Amino acid sequence: MLVVVVSLMAGCAALHPSGCHKTTALGSCGSGRWEDQDEWGAQARGIKAAIEDKIAEPQRWKGKKCRLHMEFAQDGRALKVSASKGNKEYCEAVKLAAQKAKFPAFSNPEVYRDFQKVGFDMEG
Q1: Coil/strand/helix, residue 88
Q2: Average pLDDT, the chain
């Protein structure tokens, strides 16, 4: 009986592999959700704010969604930007905004490792 209880508890515990930042057991190593209250969340919010600052006609995009894919240099420069899975016009607006935006540099090598190639679910 004790073995069953321990197995169930271990199955529900968040898994934190060595060198991996996870906020949930099912999350990826560099989850970087906007609401995370850590360096990963702060970086994600900085990236989101930089994009939102450059988006054309923000009121036009209310309720629209898009998946934004980015690759970054450690100094915060966007090396590659693409968009998918969403409203075509909004995706194009988000992509253009991301190409114009100035992003915060990555001061923590672990945060950079997790954000070097990243995807964000953007919503207008």
Answers
A1: helix
A2: 78
